[in-house]
Amino acid sequence: MTSLSAVPGALLDELRDAGLDPEHVRSVIGTALGEDLPDGAPDPTSWATIAEDARGEAVLAAREPGVVAGLGIAALVFHTVVPEVEVTDRVPDGTTVDRGDVVMRVAGRTRGLLVAERTALNLACHLSGVATATARWVEALDGTPTRVLDTRKTLPGLRALQKYAVRCGGGVNHRLGLHDMAMVKDNHVIAAGGVLPALTALRRDFPGLPVEVEVTTLDQLDELLALPEPPDRVLLDNMSDELMAEAVRRTAGRVPLEASGGITLDRAPRIGATGVDFVSVGALTHSVTVFDIGMDLVEP
Question: Which of these, 135, 65, 132, lies nearest to 98 by C-alpha position?
Fold first, then answer.
């Protein structure tokens, strides 16, 4: 694989500006390429059918309407496999495209283009699927104060990339991991002996760390709101639209509220109408449908 020092600096800066670590992205790409070609093995089909010095051009195009994401990552795949590759006509991540729209062109040694093809498409299609699904939620919540959040229900090793794709679709990231925000759920309450002991212990041992507490009833919400220092956010778990609207009324903006559990896209406008600040949707990342992007060599 080409070292990052040989990758155009503008592409690496673009990834960093998007909140991605190029070294991490590179490791994901390396893992994926290693699944195709373990221990540096050649691609027999490409090696047998394509001359070593043959050069070609390929077009990547959308095969359905949606929002694209991960095209910079796909470009890094091509730069990794084909050091002298030329990447042109790449549309910015977050762009809404129609069926047939060209999203990127690549030119270079034909063998390398075909070796890189599947890894580049796997990443771009998956991340574009995340962005497209997120954009549907953003559209469904339009005109309401509610923002759509992702969750930790992500694919191992792809969390940073999937959360980036959520941002491309107009969504908001929840905590990245267990380390950057505490979330007190029912099991924590049982283990700690109550909500107040859990909050007290967290603020003692991890001062300054944001804390979110899950509730399932309005009585539990009232208990939190009565505290001298309520949590930084409250998660309303599996509540009806009516109960969420009442929770918003009782909270009166003191604490941000997040809806979770039993959330579906067709329910989104009703959830937004309750006035909650956020709705978290695990399906954005854990069961998303890929967005179809194809790659075709240009006939000489």
Answer: 65
Cα end-to-end span (Å), the chain: 28
Q: State the span(s) of the chain assigned CATH 3.20.20.70.
A: 139-286
What pLDDT shows up at residue 36? 93
Rounded to 5 degrees, φ, ψ at 216 are: -120, -5
Q: Find how far residue 156's CA is from the centre of its chain.
A: 12
Can you tell me the distance from the alpha carbon of 37 to that of 257, in angstroms, rounded to the nearest whole number?
48
Kindly report the pTM of this predicted structure: 0.94
Arch. (CATH architecture) of 139-286: Alpha-Beta Barrel (3.20)
User: 232-273: per-residue pLDDT in tens?
Assistant: 999 999 999 999 999 999 999 999 999 999 899 999 999 999
Instruction: Name the fold adopted by 4-130+289-297.
Output: Aldehyde Oxidoreductase; domain 3 (3.90.1170)
- CA–CA distance, 297 with 145 (Å, rounded to integer): 46
- Residues designated catalytic: 118, 153, 185, 214, 237
DSSP letter assigned to residue 100 = T
Mean pLDDT split into 10-residue runs, the chain, 300 residues: 76 95 95 91 92 96 98 97 94 98 98 97 98 98 98 96 98 95 91 88 94 94 93 96 98 97 93 98 94 94
Helix (H, G, I), strand (E, B), or coil: what is residue 227? Answer: coil
Beta-carbon count within 10 A of 143 CB: 10
The CB density around residue 242, as the number of other CB atoms within 10 Å, is 10
Could you say which DSSP state residue 265 is in? Answer: G
Token representation of residue 115 = 């070796």
Whole-number pLDDT of residue 2: 62
Residues of the chain with CATH 3.90.1170.20: 4-130+289-297
Return d(Cα 239, Cα 218) in angstroms, integer.
Answer: 9
- 3-state secondary structure at position 96: strand
Are 280 and 260 in contact by the 8 Å Cβ rule? The answer is yes
